[in-house]
Amino acid sequence: MKSVVFDLDGTLADTSADLIASANACFADLGLGTPLDPVADALTAFAGGRAMLGLGFERLGVSDTSAISREFPNLLAHYARDLDVHTRLYDGVEACLQGLLKQGYALGVCTNKPAGLAEDLLVRLGIRDYFSAMLGADSLPVRKPDPEHLWATIDAMGGTRGCGVLIGDTITDRKAAQNAGLPCILVGFGPLGAGVADMKPAAVLDHYTDLEAMLGPIFDDLEKV
User: Fold this and answer.
1) Which of 38, 53, 140, 152 could make an S-S bridge to 17, C-beta 3.0–4.6 Å?
2) Which of 7, 14, 41, 169 is catalytic?
3) Phi-psi bin for 97: left (phi > 0), alpha (psi -120 to 50), beta?
4) What family is this (predicted)?
């Protein structure tokens, strides 16, 4: 079975504003203001909660690295409450997922977002039912870029480990696919824009209307191996 695995944040949906808001809420709780910008710091948002907290504390001149660990549960609590205030699917996502299912592809999500939050967000965005499997950061003892995270997702989808493609947006996704010996398509509409081409993915996706045509030749090459 041909497996198409998607990252979530920055790939299926622009979650950056809600992620940044959750980190800023932590700083505000401490009386430190809101040091992060939802636009300028979008790339850091997609790197995860600890990265956002680290950047914020750095800007505030807080050198105590243990503050990140102390505030991380608070960040998750803020985010769980308001995870879809500003978050929106990227243009064309749902129509693309419908088309891929009609073509017989198995669809899954492999994300470094905690599984509970990922499940909740996919449900709220109305696309959870398109995916036969969803693995988050805490679904296994390891996570991307460890290849086992991607392989286990494909296993849960009922797919074949050597016949899958990862759609992502960051170097973490690129390395996860590379470590798993699978091709990776990176989206060109995230914070890095066309700069994702520097990571040498199998292809750069500029709009979801192009994905179905892009997958055909990639899977043809996989089936020749």
Assistant:
1) 38
2) 7
3) alpha
4) Belongs to the HAD-like hydrolase superfamily. CbbY/CbbZ/Gph/YieH family.
Query: Domain with 113 in it: what CATH number?
Result: 3.40.50.1000
**8 and 48 co-located in one domain:** no
Residue 223 is encoded by which pair of tokens? Answer: 């089936």
- The pTM is what? 0.94
Q: Find out whether 25 and 77 touch, Cβ atoms under 8 Å.
A: no
8 Å CB contact between 111 and 8:
yes
- Both 56 and 104 in one domain: the answer is no
Residue 14 catalytic? no
Are residues 38 and 133 located together in one domain of the fold? no
**Could you tell me the residue range of the domain that residue 10 belongs to?**
3-14+87-224
Q: Compute the residue count for the chain.
A: 225
Q: What are the distances in angstroms from CA 77 to CA 10, 11, 74, 82, 135?
A: 21, 23, 5, 9, 20
* H or E, element range at 214: helix 211-224
Query: Whose CA is closest to 206, among 217, 198, 197?
Result: 197
Helices (H), the chain: 16-29, 42-46, 49-60, 66-81, 93-102, 115-124, 147-156, 171-180, 211-224
Beta strands at 184-187 and 203-205: parallel, antiparallel or unpaired: parallel
